[in-house]
Amino acid sequence: MRVVVAGATGLIGSRTVARLRDHGVEVVRLSRGEGVDVTTGKGLDEAMRGADVVVDVTDTPSRGELESLEFFGTATHNLLEAAAKAGAVHHVILSIVGADQLQAGYFRAKALQEEQVRRSPMPYSIVRATPFFESVEYMSRAATYGDVVHVAPVLIRPVSTDDVAAAVAHVAVGVPLFGVLEVAGPEEHRLDDLTAKLLAARGYLRDVVPDAHTPFFGAVPGQRALLPGAGAHLGHETFSEWIARR
Fold it and tell me: The pTM is what?
């Protein structure tokens, strides 16, 4: 089996490549460093030759809605088109839990990416992950005003990137789901509590203020909007374990 991974050098991509190799499949890495640009299409058709499965774990450097919409709309179109030309039989994308509920910001872009994949004739699988541990760190900086951090008091099951990569690789080597697999962390927390825990572990003396109006990746979620459904696959690493090894 020949699996092409788009976004192969990123946070999730590099881990996904390693997990796929553990499955014993041939992996082709797509990235700008490899001479392939998924937004312009440069080098894409050539890199896709002989692909059986395409795994799209690309991400945009900006969480802004317009930038995310433009990136995912263009990259997904190009990848689907190149995959069809190559004769691939399975297209896997990484999305985010809440994409089907929060029609704003980054979530809206991921929802439209999912819709592109569903409308394509290509057999597909969608893996939706809850916020990564790194997302908590991102939020601790995004809404900082002096010594105060505003964080939405929403419930989340943060997940490790290793657990997400393992799930993506497992789905990629299996039969297409024609649907969604949700992946989440083993524990449920409030985002503001986790942010306070992270800041304390880093030695930052900042007050965390629960603020229901603070956006998360461009959307203002309800208390349970970032939680997965009952059938989610749960990872192994906890937030405390992640902090301890960093």
Answer: 0.94
